[in-house]
Specification:
With about 230 residues, the chain is of the alpha+beta class. It has helices spanning about 20-25, 45-55, 120, 185-195, 205-210, 210-230, and strands at about 5-10, 25-30, 40-45, 60-65, 70-80, 85-95, 100-110, 125-130, 130-135, 145-150, 160, 170-175, 180-185. It is built from six helices and 13 strands. The chain has a six-stranded mixed barrel with strand order 1-3-2-6-5-4.
């Protein structure tokens, strides 16, 4: 993969005075470097937006500011709640041989020729419950995504947890193994929960009221405990 390179300018403008920068198409940012004094910088909105779309919070970017260069991860991004424009970026400098934590997207996969889980092909609903997990690895080992097999989702109550992710060597997942990634529900159960909430519930809120969801989480915890015991043996 090609390096993502950002040219940033140091800034002395802080606080509310940065509003003018934003009007000029610039985004204030800060670089944190292992306990050293933070470096306040600014960058072009289009360049920063493109870098964030490509790197997310899991791929390193190369920062150039004056005579200094850093390898960094995007730690946080603040967006305007109304206009959704990028307002501020936080970078964390990293060392090549130092383990870092990062948020890695998770994605469901299917057997060749399939585009959905068996449950969905049978008219059931597969609810995705986690979009990303926290991992630890040296920067060069950070994956772009982690996968899980959707073919095991066939009947109501079937579920996949963080423990079922396919994790490459050198990567440690920090998110709880028992946390569900996806669970199969009966459409009528979700609809009933939504109706009980007056028809205004989101899918996630509906699931919170479905007993099957609680049962699935219990099964997930039991499965994780069983795997833990197997490892001890």
């Amino acid at each position: 993969m090609e390096d993502i390179i950002l040219d940033l300018e140091t800034r002395t403008v802080l606080g509310k005075a940065v509003k003018k920068m934003r009007k000029d198409g610039l985004v204030p940012a800060v670089i944190h470097d292992h306990g050293k004094p933070s470096i306040h910088v600014t960058g072009n909105l289009l360049d920063l937006s493109k870098a964030y779309r490509t790197a997310g919070k899991h791929r390193t970017v190369k920062l150039k500011t004056g005579s200094k260069q850093f390898t960094a991860l995007i730690k946080g991004v603040d967006f305007d709640p109304k206009k959704h424009g990028m307002r501020h970026v936080v970078f964390n400098a990293v060392h090549a041989n130092e383990k870092v934590t990062a948020e890695i997207p998770v994605r469901i996969t299917f057997d060749e020729g399939n585009e959905s889980a068996p449950a969905e092909r049978a008219g059931l609903v597969v609810l995705h419950q986690l979009e990303a997990v926290e991992v630890e690895a040296v920067p060069s080992k950070l994956p772009d995504e982690l996968l899980f097999n959707g073919e095991v989702l066939a009947v109501v109550g079937d579920h996949v947890t963080v423990a079922d992710l396919i994790v490459p060597e050198g990567v440690t997942v920090k998110t709880d193994d028992s946390h569900p990634l996806a669970t199969v529900f009966e459409p009528s159960a979700l609809q009933a929960a939504n109706d009980a909430a007056g028809g205004d519930a989101t899918e996630d809120e509906a699931v919170a009221d479905v007993d099957a969801g609680e049962a699935a989480e219990g099964l997930a915890a039991e499965k994780a405990a069983e795997k833990s015991e197997e490892k001890k043996d």
